[in-house]
Design goal:
The protein has 248 residues and is an alpha/beta fold. Helix content is 42%, strand content 15%. Strand 1 (6-10), helix 1 (15-26) and strand 2 form a beta-alpha-beta unit. Belongs to the short-chain dehydrogenases/reductases (SDR) family.
Length: 248
């Protein structure tokens, strides 16, 4: 069945965002991918996406409020609506302890991962409220629940995403809009430090790290009317990573 919605995906030209764009296109949706990726990366992504359906690219810096507003306005101007917003753009930052970290870099992670999610949700949410429907899907992480002693900005941002997901859901539910977060574990993207793959694999039930298309499938499922009972929460998509005591 053709879904025929407008789906706006931040970080949509690489990793989880790219795979999410593919699955929405395959189900008949119109997709806007927005990112700050280099021209070569964007070109490769669009070459993969265009054969699958109607797709548009807009340049987006999620750490810049005006850029977020402009992309939402451009999307509505092009397709008349934002039916589904997938906030997937994000960075991890340095794998350094808080006392060793460059605090400007820590702040940048928070601006991208947390403030970017807030900016996009505010501007898309306003349009959704006018129409009385919509779905906002955010990207959390196991790092929003489990702590290590590195990447303090990433941990703080993802914990924040869990809470703002609840805030936006509480605000927008009366207008027919759902807001849900997805929390993966270790995913094979350019953000994954290759040095951690072997150890991380032992903490997943499949004995391997997750692939981007596996997380993309969760985003798509949560966008459907059949998931209407899921709102204001974070869905764990971490292959059992958080279910055991660090041993598998």
């Amino acid at each position: 069945m053709k879904e025929d919605r407008c789906v706006l995906i931040t970080g949509g030209t690489s990793g989880i965002g790219l795979e999410t764009a593919k699955i929405f296109l395959k189900h008949g949706n119109k997709v806007v991918v927005a990112s700050i990726d280099e021209e070569e990366t964007v070109g490769r992504a669009m070459d993969e996406l265009k054969p699958l359906g109607e797709v548009t690219y807009f340049r987006l810096d999620v750490a810049d409020e005006k850029s977020c507003k402009d992309v939402v306005d451009q999307t509505v101007g092009t397709y008349g609506a934002v039916d589904v917003l997938c906030n997937i753009a994000g960075i991890v930052g340095e794998l350094k302890t808080p006392l060793e970290a460059d605090l400007q870099k820590v702040n940048h992670v928070i601006q991208v991962d947390l403030m970017g999610t807030i900016y996009m949700s505010v501007y898309a949410g306003r349009y959704m409220k006018e129409r009385g429907k919509g779905v906002i899907l955010n990207t959390s992480s196991i790092c929003g629940f489990l702590a290590s002693n590195v990447s303090v900005g990433y941990h703080g941002a993802k914990a924040g995403v869990n809470l703002i997901t609840k805030v936006f859901a509480k605000e927008l539910a009366p207008d027919g809009i759902r807001c849900v977060a997805v929390a993966p574990a270790t995913v094979r993207t350019r953000l994954m430090d290759p040095s951690i793959e072997e150890e991380a694999s032992t903490l997943h039930m499949k004995h391997r790290v997750e692939e981007p298309d596996e997380i993309a499938g969760v985003f798509h499922l949560l966008s459907l009317d059949g998931a209407s009972a899921i709102n204001g929460t974070t869905v764990m998509a971490e292959d059992g990573f958080c279910s055991f005591k660090g041993v598998w």
